[in-house]
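User: Teach me something about this protein's shape.
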Amino acid sequence: MLFDAKTYSSRRAELREKVGSGLIILLGNNNAPCNYPANGYTFRQDSSFLYYTGQDRDTLALVIDADNGQEWLLGDDIDIEDIIWTGFVPSVADLAAECGIANSAPFGKLSEMVADARKAGRKIHFLPPYRHDHMILLSDMLGIHPLKTRESASVELIKAVVSMRSIKSAAEIEEIERAMAIGYQMHCGAMKACKPGVTEKSIGGLMEGIAMSQGAKVSFSSIVSMHGEIFHGDPSLKKLEPGRLLLVDAGAETVNNYCSDNTRTMPISGKFTTKQREIYSIVEACHDLVIEKAKPAMKWMDMHLDVCRLMTDRLKDLGLMKGNTDDAVAAGAHAMFLQHGLGHMMGMDVHDMEGLGQIYVGFDDEVRPSTQFGTNCLRCGRRLQPGFVMTDEPGIYFIPALIDKWKSEKMHLDFLNYDKIEQYRDFGGIRLEDDILITETGCRVLGKDIIPYHPDDVEAFMQ
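Assistant: First, the predicted structure itself:
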């Protein structure tokens, strides 16, 4: 466990108070088979279960009775046949005691507790399941069709968990900083290895090896691609080509399950061309604007739109856009170049709590999601609070299919210079991403060492 029993007990008490009444169920994850039962994916515990128990064993459940305060850790003890293969594993009773839970029982008791609560007409709170085994379990216990379990999840519990996990404690920030340190090594390793003839796969494998050597793992499947205009470009066996850009979006997850998430874009030949540097400098300015302006009480939606306006102004200077900047952004013309949101929350999940429903995590009654192309991909728009950890990740992308579509439909002719844009259709994409902590007065970039990102620094580092 990362924290002591008192921390987890305090979190559960606060959760119980926020939910108010009923039976709270938090399901831990099970092992998941890859291509046959005995060959499984690397186990990863559910983040909310970890947050309230600290226990990393598979096939456990936490039950909290919000009315009488009783807490139960449910799970089956392993037998000698399992011990032969996996080694000694503490009993469920020992795990419960370790995190301050007074009661433990076999996993089968969960069905009994749910049945009793249903008979009594009590509210049963559970989070939206994202694994099908949990959907089936909840379906069996509650009489809900498996595909209806997500929409039947408890809004009270979702909002309580989001309100708690959104604010990172000093100890959580320390753990994120450890992830940042590993991510620094990963990205610097990629930058050193980036040269013509090296494959995307080899750079992706290098970064994963660095994470594993630190007792960590990657926080998501690394994006390593010469086609930076493809947001989730998996590394391929293609060899890096001179004159192109390489976009690397990757992060580390510590052994205690806190994440980092950074993106760098670098010239494969070691030097930016004039055209590349011009576009890069716009993304750099947008990235730095966030660090300068982000602060408590500011709407992240407003921060996103500020970045869009700066980007539009600078693209007008290059002749790629035209017209009134405010009108262009209001119309969504900037989404020719920026088709995603400025950033998202980060913590135990690299897209923190996204599985709970982005409408609850990133938005509220005051700030609702946009339906406009591009801005509709903004994962958070609500007002910032001290303790939020956000990613700052503006980008500029030239997507040939989008250029062709909008040009054929005569979209935003008052704001886009298609003749000029055509000169960039094979450009690719540039994104820069760092992780920031919202402080009492502003924000700060997380990580003791910052991965080089100013263009001169990138070129010097690569040499």
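Now, about its shape. The chain has two domains: 5-165, 170-462. The first strand starts at residue 23 and ends at 27. If you'd like, I can walk through any region in more detail.
User: That's plenty for now, thanks!
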